[in-house]
Amino acid sequence: MDILELESFLPYRLYRLADAVSREFSKVYKDRHGLTRPEWRTLSGLGQRGTMSATELGEQSAMHKTKVSRAVAELERRRWLMRTADENDRRVEHLTLTKTGLAAYREMVPLAKAFERELLAKFGVDERAAIMSGMAALEMALEGK
Predict the structure, then answer these.
(1) What is the rounded CA–CA span in Å between residue 136 and residue 128?
(2) 106 touches 95 (CB < 8 A)
(3) Quick one: how far is CA 40 from the chain centroid?
């Protein structure tokens, strides 16, 4: 019988690595604002794009609609985002950060960039280039390009 060694199986290694990096970064926004990962992804998605629907947020952040819904509800409770019904389709709501939500996002951007810089500083120039090109190649391969 052929055995799959998870520790060397690329999809498993990528998942574990992404989860470890995400958990490490989550300490930053959890300590600062008490946010969960879905709340941070929602905040950052809206901060980056301005206005999005919950469906668009889910697609952009690769989150299940239930997680998006809970994150939106919590950020709305905090008064960090507001919902506006679509004029043409009442089933669709446009989500936008409030001034308070935008202020929190703007405060987090330099912290996120500093986290990324510190993470990448653990590698040499050639290793950083290899990581970035390897990730780009995987993304292109999975998109079918």
Answers:
(1) 12
(2) no
(3) 7
How far apart are alpha carbons 33 and 125 in whole angstroms?
Answer: 33
Sign of the alpha-carbon torsion through 2, 5, 127, 120: positive
Pairing of strands 81-85, 93-97: antiparallel
pLDDT confidence of residue 85: 87
Helix axes 37-49, 54-61, angle to 10 degrees: 110
Element (H, E) at 94: strand 93-97
Distance between first and last Cα of the chain = 35
* Residue positions counted in the chain: 145
| pLDDT recorded at residue 112 | 96
Read off the pLDDT of residues 84-135 as tens digits, 9 standing for 90 and up.
988 888 788 899 999 999 999 999 999 999 999 999 999 999 999 999 999 9
33-61 as b/e: b if 16+ CB within 10 A: bebebbbbbbbbbbbeeeebbbebbbebb
d(Cα 104, Cα 64) in Å, to the nearest integer?
24
